[in-house]
Amino acid sequence: MNGAVLLTALATGLAGSAHCVAMCGGISASLGLGSTRKRYLLVYHGGRLLSYSTLGLIFGCLLPLFGFRPHNPAWGAALRIVAALAMLLVGVQIILGVNWLRRLERYGIRLWRPLAGFVQTLLPVRSASDALLLGFLWGLLPCGLIYSALGLALVSGNPLAAALVMLTFGLGTLPAMLLLGVFSGTLLQALTREGSRLLLGGLVIATALWTVWPFLAV
Q1: For 140, how many CA atoms within 13 A lie in the half-sphere containing its CB?
Q2: CB 94 within 8 A of CB 15
Q3: Cα end-to-end distance, the chain, whole Å
Q4: Cα-to-chain-centroid distance, residue 209
Q5: Are 197 and 88 in contact (CB under 8 A)?
């Protein structure tokens, strides 16, 4: 099941590239300009991936904290079904090009406001440590796409698997972010055109069905 969830997380990151560029592209582009700042680009994205992984680790602790034991056969079967439903919803979301969790962003903004002022003090980036911290904090930006990935992390069943899910999601967002200003226009068009959405969404839906096939075949 974990492989199926990881595939879904990667597809979510790839399909959401346009949204990620809109949210984080300005900082990524500014870090890529000039010889003195280019070296901070990978550090910034490393901080972002670390932030996603940390969130996954936290969310992965929630089910065990409430007594959920995925290694128990009955719990494991229930978790597999819930994970398949989550993947199915993500697949439909990718195909339709919608963000069903956008409303949650308004609640996340309340938590983000205290950080927003501090983030501004890190710009322009003057050191690698600033770039790392900026990337980590930017990973906490309210975003429905991240919330979808966190839902996948939650149903992965354990903290390490959940952290890996979020890391995989972050890796899916990297190509467009790293190539911003070079090939990103072509890449974003390729990832957001209808055919690509259908392919990624269809793959996720097929993976979801494969995950619950043992139950459907009974």
Answers
A1: 16
A2: yes
A3: 18
A4: 22
A5: no
DSSP string across 2-41 = HHHHHHHHHHHHHHTHHHHHHHHHHHHHHHTSSHHHHTHH
Cα 135 to Cα 50: distance, rounded to the nearest angstrom: 8
Structure tokens at 72: 């128990």
**DSSP alpha helix (H) spans, the chain:** 2-15, 17-31, 35-38, 40-60, 62-65, 73-96, 105-121, 128-138, 144-154, 159-178, 184-192, 194-216
93-104: b (≥16 Cβ within 10 Å) or e:
bbbeeebebeeb
Per-residue pLDDT of 45-81, as tens digits, reads 999 999 999 999 999 998 888 777 666 666 677 777 8
Q: What is the pTM of this model?
A: 0.81
Environment class of 5 (CB within 10 Å of its CB; exposed 0-12, middle 13-18, buried 19+): buried
CA-wise closest residue to 142 among 183, 184, 110: 110
Express each pLDDT in 193-214 by its tens digit: 667 778 878 888 888 888 777 6
**Are 177 and 49 spatial neighbours (Cβ–Cβ below 8 Å)?**
no
* Residue ranges of domains in the chain: 3-86+112-192
CB atoms within 10 A of CB 146: 30
Query: Among candidates 216, 179, 203, which has minimal Cα distance to 92?
Result: 203
Which amino acid, one-letter code, is at 95? I
